[in-house]
Amino acid sequence: MWRYFAIAVAAYASLAATQTITPRTGWTVTVDSSQSGTGNEATKMLDGNTTTYWHTQYMPTTAALPHVVTIDMKTTVNVNGLTYLPRQVGSLNGNIGQHTVQLSSDGTTFNTVAFGTYLDDRSLKTTPFTTTPARYVRLTAQTEAGGRGPWTSAAEINILSAATYTKPATSGGIWGATIDFPIVPAAAAVLDGSGKVLMWSSYKPFDFAHRKQYSE
User: Fold this and answer.
1) Longest Cα–Cα distance in the chain
2) pLDDT computed for residue 1 by the predictor
3) DSSP string covering 75-125, please?
4) CA proximity to 86, closest of 58, 116, 45, 134
């Protein structure tokens, strides 16, 4: 059976007609780490204020990566995407780089629906994926985008959803997890025998004309 993968350039993705921002009333969020005494609690990710932000512990000791954010929406939602807004004030410390997005109906068993790397800037990151009924959404930061330290931060996280859900057909192949790219992929090839995918990317977002060409 064929397995297909969607590719998203998270910093430049726009919402599809089937994606709406889910109201966050009554939601709760848990994290593995939060800096106390500085106003950087986990609830800042859900407060609707882009000038506040959650930050993992950095004093008196620093919490190690990976860092995990789990949102409980309190009811089953037809989830089809997530948006992540990095901190909008101060430094870029804590911007999420490599990451996974997982869904769960019971808060115990989680399935991966997206993975990849976010660009190290302040732009809104949008990760779309196949519509899946779920109550819990988990975002795991595996690296800090700029390599500045083992921190993670977030100004806002929103969940995208669809009004209806139709179970996808299994004949002719199935969709795998979405792959988030930090920059624009220009071409791809599957390497013989290994199954690995070689990606050629633009030198920087929206710019492939440069003296030096790089591949990822």
Assistant:
1) 55
2) 44
3) EEEEEEEEEEE---SS--TT-B-EEEEEEESSSS--EEEEEEE--SSSSPE
4) 45
- Judged against a pLDDT cut of 80, whether residue 66 lies above it is answered with yes
Using pLDDT thresholds of 50, 70 and 90, give the confidence band for residue 214: very low
CA distances from 66 to 32, 85, 111, 142, 199 (A): 9, 18, 17, 5, 26
Given a cut of 90, is residue 209 above it in pLDDT?
A: no
Helical ranges in the chain per DSSP H: none
**How many angstroms separate the first and last alpha carbons of the chain?**
27
Q: Do 154 and 45 form a contact (C-beta atoms < 8 A)?
A: yes
Distances (CA, A) of 46 to 4, 17, 30, 92, 185: 33, 24, 11, 19, 32
| Residue 152: both structure tokens together | 């993670």
